[in-house]
Structure formats: structure tokens, C-alpha cells
Amino acid sequence: MYIAFLFAVQSFIHAKKHKKQSRRGQLFFASLREIHLQNQETLPYRRIPTSLVPVNDSFNANIFFGSFILNTMLTKSISAKEKITDIDWKNVSGQMNTNGYSLIENILTIEECDLLISLYNKQELFRKTITMERYHFGLGEYKYFSYPLPPLIQTIRETVYPFLAPIANTWMNVLKIETQFPAAFSELQTLCHNNKQDKPTVLILKYGKGGHNTLHQDLYGEIFFPIQLVLFLNEPGKDYTGGEFVLTEQVPRAQSKAIVLQPGKGDMLLFTTNFRPAKSKTGYYRVNMKHGVSEVRSGNRHTVGIIFHDAQ
């Protein structure tokens, strides 16, 4: 992003020094704004019109190169996929088995986070809005996306799932549960739809001062995948205070344990939807877990929740 910014500044200064080309400079910045707005809505790759880039004009060539970098950096679904593929999934598996959660830092860029936050007010993207206090879920608001999902979210959902399916199937095996999950996300979605679970469960949540989310589990139907994820879109301590992510762990015949996390902007948290296995001297048993959000003391907190199964 900084490289593109430097190119834009350089081009602007050049335009100031060469008044004859100032009109082209204005067209460039206008087209950059158009590109940014287009990316906010659909995220495909677009370039500025070639009519603004004569091949024999060094000024416009520099502008084009800078905007090419900027536009490429705004199109993030490919880079997010690469980041996910490069995760140490063996380590993640160990953390999920031991703790029931795994925090992976810097999956999203600052630009991606801001882009996802900007979607919140585009009502046409959503199938349902929930005011949390109305249902005694807490204080705040969240919205369920409609299909098709925004490309960045769809890419993350499809790319993460195959790495989680082996973990989920191991959990089912050691707990002697017959359920097994398919290797591909598309196959899980087919199972859901065949069971009349065809409503998207991916949601974006917004909390202001006083906002919180009571402890809960996101099940939505008979078919549910036992792991989900949250993408954190704001920086704690800067954009908001409070609003910690809370997990509770209920061990049989023992008091509940609270786990309090404060992920940073762009981080991804994987955690169990319902339970995880724990080993005893005689075998494995279920550790039931719930999640919620502590009270936001100031500012605004946005997250995207990606649940892999669909709702009835």
C-alpha cells in the first residue's frame, strides 16, 4: 500500500510541475477513487481505462504502474488464500486438541479489514438483521449475509475448511461419534442443503459502548461443523477498549474455566462450536465450550463470524 501511495504522490507532484498534464492527473485520481469503490463492492481485479494511459507518455505510464499496484493490493482474496495455505496447520491442530481454540495473526490486511467494515451499511448484502437486546443475546447488532457471499469471505470459508475437517473427524473418532465430515466444503454444504439447512450463517457483528454478547453456541440445525472462526476487524486499545473474546470450558464435575482473549486487527481465531475432546486415564470425554464478548467500554468493535454449516 505504501508503494502505491508513493507512486500516487510522485505523480501528483509531477502533475503540479507540468500544468499541461494536470487534467490527466485529475482523471487519474478520479479513476483511482472509482476503482476503490468498485473493489469495496465486488473485489474483482479492475484497471484504469487504457484511454488514460498513452504508451508514449511517461507521466501516465508512471500513474498506471502506481494504480496497478494499488488495485492489485486491494484485490485480496488470492493473498488471503495463500496466507491460509501457509499456516502451520500441524501446530493449529495441536492447539485445537489441547485448548479448543487457535489464534492466527495477520490473516487480513488493514485494507481488507476496513473493506469488510464498509460492507456493514450495504443492506442489500444481508438476509437478516438481529438487534441483540431484543432477544436477550446481549447488546449490539449483527447481520447475516445472503448468498452469494462477498468473494473474500467465500475464499476464506472454502480455503480454511479442508484444513479443519481432519481435526473435526479425529474428534468424532476419539469420542466414538459416528459422524464424519467430508473433505471439501462444497460437500458439507450439500449435506446441509439436503437436510433443509440452506440459509447462510456467515455474519458481521457490530458493538458500540456497552455492547456485549452473552455466552452461547452457534449450532443452527442437526448438521453442525464443530469448529468455526472469527475475523477481527478493529484494533483493541485504539479503535475500542474492553470487548474481549471470552471462551468458557465446562469440565464434568468441575467449575467452569474462563479464557479471555484480545486478538488484534486482522487476526483470525479458530475455536470449537460446541465441544472438544479431552483425554483421561480411561479414554476421552467431552469438554463443552461456549463463547461470548465482554462489555465494550468505548469505541466500536466489528468482527466477521464464519460458521461452516448453514441454518434451517
Task: Spell out the key features of this protein.
312 residues, alpha+beta, Jelly Rolls, 2 domains, seven-stranded antiparallel sheet, six-stranded antiparallel sheet, 8 helices, globular, disordered N terminus
Written account of the structure:
With 312 residues, this protein is an alpha+beta fold. It has two domains: 2-74, no CATH class; 78-306, Jelly Rolls, CATH 2.60.120.620. The protein has helices at 2-17, 22-42, 58-74, 77-85, 89-99, 110-118, 151-174, 185-194; strands at residues 101-104, 126-131, 138-139, 141-145, 203-207, 212-216, 227-232, 240-242, 245-250, 257-261, 268-272, 275-279, 284-293, 296-299, 301-306. The strands form three sheets. The chain has a seven-stranded antiparallel beta sheet with strand order 1-11-7-15-5-4-2.
Record the SSE blueprint:
Blueprint lengths: L1 H16 L4 H21 L15 H17 L2 H9 L3 H11 L1 E4 L5 H9 L7 E6 L6 E2 L1 E5 L5 H24 L10 H10 L8 E5 L4 E5 L10 E6 L7 E3 L2 E6 L6 E5 L6 E5 L2 E5 L4 E10 L2 E4 L1 E6 L6
Antiparallel strand pairs: 1-11, 2-4, 3-6, 4-5, 5-15, 6-13, 7-11, 7-15, 8-14, 9-10, 9-13, 12-13
Helix pairs in contact: 1-2, 1-3, 2-3, 4-7, 5-7
Short description:
With about 300 residues, the protein is an alpha+beta fold.
* Name given to the CATH architecture of the largest domain: Sandwich
What amount of the residues lies in strands?
15-25%
- State the major sheet: 7 strands, antiparallel
Low-confidence stretches: 1-76
End-to-end Cα distance: 41 Å
